[in-house]
Amino acid sequence: MMRVLIVDDHSLVRAGIALLIGGQEDMEPVGQAGTAAEAIKLAGELSPDIILLDVTMPGGGGLESLPALAAAAPAASVLMLSMHEDPNYVRAALGAGASGYVLKDAAYEELVDAIRKVAAGQAYVAPALGAKLAVHAERESDDELSEREREVLSLLARGYTNQEIASRLFVSVRTVESHRAHILVKLRLSTRADLVSYALETGLLRPEPEV
Questions:
Q1: Helices 173-187, 147-157: inter-axial angle, 10-degree rounding
Q2: CATH superfamily of this structure's domain 2-137
Q3: Where are the alpha helices (DSSP H) in the chain?
Q4: CATH architecture entry for 147-202
Q5: pLDDT, tens digit, 9 for 90 and up, residues 23-68
Q6: DSSP string, 39-99
Q7: For a tag site, which of 29, 80, 98, 172 has the least CB within 10 Å?
Q8: What is the pLDDT of residues 23-34, one digit of tens each?
Q9: Residue 135 CB-density burial (10 A; 0-12 exposed, 13-18 middle, 19+ buried)
């Protein structure tokens, strides 16, 4: 029996996936989490076989939490759930230790198949992304950060929270979370510590202008 931990910030999504998994003879949902912090805590307590992990979530996304999840539940395989079809996200997820990547608009049958393959030790990437990954492998995409992404990175490296950055830049918290995810993917980084190191190396941690 495959024990599955479901991690997504939308309760309806979690409930739907739990219902689907609970209807399978060879798997069961053992827990649900709405944030990365909750996921890490439950992963350590429940020792799941599979962690279904949303790529972007409030308070820190799935990509950033992968190292901590691996430490909390080293035997678990991680299958990323995402709305993003950008090959950069797939590469970042697999590079950070995920075993698979499935799109949120996938058919139920595909999700169940992906869980079984990852549980069996196979890598899984949504078929819809196959062609995009093939093209992407032949040519690197433009990884240059936008000016706004550089602003967000600079503030993140200084220790500001997503809420504080949103307030300073007059944007929504969700927008900041999206910028943060794009930055990690473009730079092929995983944690805030990585962002700080990058900002130091590239001179982004300059004295702040007077507000």
A1: 90
A2: Response regulator (3.40.50.2300)
A3: 11-22, 36-46, 62-72, 87-95, 108-119, 130-138, 147-157, 162-169, 173-187, 192-202
A4: Orthogonal Bundle (1.10)
A5: 999 999 999 999 989 999 999 999 999 999 998 877 667 888 888 8
A6: HHHHHHHH--SEEEEESS-TTS-HHHHHHHHHHH-TT-EEEEEES---HHHHHHHHHTT-S
A7: 172
A8: 999 999 999 999
A9: exposed
